[in-house]
Design a protein that fits this description.
single chain, alpha+beta, 4-stranded antiparallel β-sheet
């Protein structure tokens, strides 16, 4: 499986997963890129919270309308 790696010089490249990876441009050691992950999206503790948020936004917009 290919992974994205980044060296200390800032070069990003894809290569097959292995223990010791070197940058093909500058021959520096490279580490796998850690991608941002989003936690807590599945934890819906309030129920239909999105509906409540839209309701409050709509009521604020109606209040500001002249």
């Amino acid at each position: 499986m290919e992974k994205t790696y980044k060296c200390k010089s800032g070069h990003k490249f894809k290569k097959e997963e292995s223990a010791n990876v070197t940058c093909p441009t500058c021959n520096e050691p490279a580490e796998p890129v850690k991608w941002n992950t989003v936690d807590g999206l599945n934890a819906n503790t309030k129920g239909f919270g999105l509906k409540e948020e839209f309701g409050s936004v709509v009521s604020q917009l109606k209040g500001n309308k002249k």
